[in-house]
């Protein structure tokens, strides 16, 4: 129905030529923008409703345990929180001050921007369910393994002194909801998130529409040919200094993939922007010394690069 409406609007009302670059770009822009925003709204509402049933005090207790199970739960909890890399930091700081092991808090910080409801919606809409499911598992794996490695390196000494002083004092308050209150919470969270990222959706889809309809496939492919096997780490290096919402990055990544960039390279670029950014590094300076920030960025980048190569290897099996 939405596709037919876009056809009617772009090619009927606006009278654009469906065979022209401009007509195709406008159709791509309107259809994907509306589709993604609607999917975002309804999925976030449902996830927000479900999240009200999560016992907050138990979450703190589970994340405070030792062992890889705590890292897994932290990554899983991060996956159901609709945060970008910078938005995850306040909750990350709260976990630190609550005395939760450093490696476990890093698992949350890594997984939270890599996997969240609106990113999953975007990937379902653009890449399909096979790649989305594999991406979710790979994001959890990156969060768990990176957190375990960071935790075993005994890096607490690199935290700033006031964070160390507060490690055992913070507490997480329980909230109770009626059934209507749960629906209201999901609705309010959905509205808040959509208001926050709708512009990123439009910008990302707009850039994707331009690339999709105007950038020759040969130009994209020539870049990959020149970088060869190093395309994945180069994509990560290019992505880390950038900052943007996945709502803007996913449409660009899928168009680059359609233009000939290997799947893992496109996803590595997207993951680097989602999980690591210079604004995030600046905000983390509030809690840790520069050395720890560098170690965190290095290990996470390495995990993303490995994942990118894995997706490139599996690309033919996924299509």
From TrEMBL:
Family: Belongs to the UPF0718 family.
Lineage, opening ranks: Bacteria, Pseudomonadati, Candidatus Omnitrophota, Candidatus Ghiorseimicrobium
Keyword Transmembrane listed: yes
Membrane topology: Multi-pass membrane protein
Keywords on record: Cell membrane, Membrane, Transmembrane, Transmembrane helix
Ranges annotated as spanning the membrane: 28-50, 71-96, 102-126, 133-151, 197-215, 227-254, 260-278, 290-311
InterPro entries to which the protein is assigned, alphabetical: DUF318 (IPR005524), UPF0718_permease (IPR053166)
Location within or outside the cell: Cell membrane
Name assigned to this protein: Permease
One GO term describing the cellular component: plasma membrane
Predominant subcellular localization, coarse grouping: membrane
């Amino acid at each position: 129905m939405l596709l037919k409406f876009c056809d009617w609007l772009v090619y009927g009302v606006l009278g654009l030529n469906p065979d022209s670059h401009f007509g195709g770009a406008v159709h791509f822009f309107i259809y994907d923008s509306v589709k993604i925003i609607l999917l975002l709204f309804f999925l976030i509402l449902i996830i927000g409703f479900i999240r009200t049933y999560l016992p907050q005090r138990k979450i703190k207790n589970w994340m405070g345990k030792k062992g890889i199970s705590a890292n897994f739960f932290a990554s899983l909890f991060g996956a159901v929180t609709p945060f970008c890399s910078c938005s995850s930091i306040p909750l990350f700081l709260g976990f630190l001050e609550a005395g939760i092991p450093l490696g476990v808090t890093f698992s949350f910080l890594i997984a939270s921007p890599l996997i969240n409801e609106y990113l999953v919606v975007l990937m379902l809409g653009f890449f399909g369910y096979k790649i989305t499911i594999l991406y979710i598992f790979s994001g959890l794996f990156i969060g768990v393994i990176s957190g375990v490695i960071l935790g075993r390196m005994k890096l607490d000494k690199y935290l700033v002194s006031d964070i160390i002083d507060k490690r055992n004092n913070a507490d997480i308050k329980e909230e109770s909801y009626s059934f209507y209150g749960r629906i209201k919470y999901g609705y309010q969270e959905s509205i808040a998130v959509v208001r926050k990222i709708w512009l990123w959706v439009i910008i990302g889809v707009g850039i994707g529409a331009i690339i999709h309809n105007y950038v020759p496939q040969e130009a994209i492919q020539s870049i990959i040919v020149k970088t060869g096997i190093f395309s994945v780490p180069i994509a990560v290096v290019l992505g880390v200094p950038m900052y943007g919402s996945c709502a803007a990055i996913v449409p660009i990544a899928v168009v680059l993939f359609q233009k000939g960039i290997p799947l893992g390279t496109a996803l590595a670029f997207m993951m680097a922007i989602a999980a690591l950014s210079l604004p995030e590094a600046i905000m983390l300076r509030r809690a840790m010394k520069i050395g720890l920030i560098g170690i965190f960025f290095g290990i996470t980048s390495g995990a993303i690069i490995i994942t990118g190569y894995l997706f490139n290897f599996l690309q033919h099996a996924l299509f």
